[in-house]
Write a structure and sequence with these properties.
The strands form five sheets. A four-stranded mixed beta sheet has the order 1-5-4-10, sandwiched between helices. It has a two-stranded antiparallel ribbon with strand order 2-3. The relative contact order is 0.14. By secondary structure, the chain is an alpha+beta fold. The two termini are 22 Å apart. The longest helix is centred in the middle third of the chain and has 19 residues. It has eight helices and twelve strands. It has two domains: 182 residues, Rossmann fold, CATH 3.40.50; 90 residues, no CATH class.
Length: 308
């Protein structure tokens, strides 16, 4: 889990990557580090890379995606997710010919299809079903009454399909009552729009609609998993003085919980002042931090003094 220096934006202690004359040289130097990361990474490991973009001669360079595509094409990385880190509040921008930049990408790479991932560790806490006037109501207020009425009045379902739909709805409500589901949606032919595609050649759900006349969207009782847009305040709210651009500890939480087992090791090859290491410690993981700056490493040891 790391966030390398961005190209041409800051002068970091003891130099290092980010001070190259050209974006091309910057990309090549960073790819050299990514190659070493892949070499030491376990087959079951993950690599989370937060990288910001830059402008050159008024042109936004697209550096994050240039790097990500080069990693896939040249080094064989598998890209599993591109997360948008929405900084909620961005820095001041006095330019008058473009929008403010308020987000950065966070890429999740793996080196094989057999990687560790604990989705239950990062699920949001689910709501609870309740009984209202004798009817089971899901966490978001679905009781099944509206679906029963839609089935009953449907002109797109045969009588046999209606009977099957009623039985299936009763089974779903039983699962909600028992806590096996917290929520659900019922898609009925002629009533709701089929998600993704209405072609039964490319969509299994469309095929269910065609064959049965309905299908269910079921919500996991352990809660929903996070999406790929994260609203996280920048670390500068912590008033760090030594390092110009420490990233927030919260940015590390999902990557570490989801892709590093409790007995695993978190590596940050651009440790800076130790945010990744501190996050790993708080989440009960061991970690290794590497940086070219002795000053930053000294600051990292101070921040992570509980490790000493």
């Amino acid at each position: 889990m790391t966030s390398p220096p961005y190209w041409g934006q800051r002068s970091y202690s003891d130099g290092g990557i980010g001070l190259e004359v050209s974006p091309r040289e910057y990309i090549q130097n960073l790819l050299g580090i990514c190659r070493e990361v892949k070499r030491v990474l376990k087959q079951t490991g993950s690599f989370w890379l937060n990288i910001g973009d830059a402008y050159d001669k008024k042109s936004l360079l697209g550096l994050p995606w240039r790097i990500a595509i080069s990693m896939m094409d040249q080094q064989g990385w598998i890209l599993r997710n591109s997360v948008i880190w929405n900084k909620v509040k961005g820095g001041l921008d006095n330019t008058k010919d473009k929008l403010r930049n308020v987000y950065e990408p966070l890429f999740h790479f793996v080196k094989s299809g057999d990687y560790y991932y604990d989705v239950d560790a990062i699920r949001n806490k689910p709501g609870q079903a309740k009984v209202v006037n004798g009817s089971v109501v899901s966490a978001t207020g679905v009781s099944g009454v509206r679906y029963r009425r839609q089935i009953e009045l449907s002109t797109a379902l045969t009588e046999e399909e209606k009977a099957t739909a009623f039985r299936a709805l009763d089974e779903i409500l039983t699962d909600v009552r028992a806590g096996r589901l917290t929520d659900f949606r019922m898609i009925i032919r002629g009533q709701q729009r089929v998600t993704h595609s209405d072609s039964d050649r490319v969509s299994g759900r469309a095929r269910e609609i065609s064959e049965k006349g309905f299908y269910f969207l079921k919500y996991d009782p352990n809660g929903s998993k996070p999406g790929d847009v994260w609203d996280i305040l920048p670390e500068d709210t912590q008033k760090r003085k030594l390092h110009f651009a420490p990233y927030p500890e919260d940015l590390c939480r999902i990557p570490i919980l989801a892709t590093c087992p409790e007995n695993g090791i978190v590596l940050d090859p651009f440790a800076g002042t130790g945010t990744t290491n501190l996050a790993a410690f708080h989440l009960g993981r061991k970690s290794v931090g590497i940086d070219v700056s002795a000053d930053y490493l000294l600051a990292a040891r101070e921040r992570c003094r509980l490790l000493l």
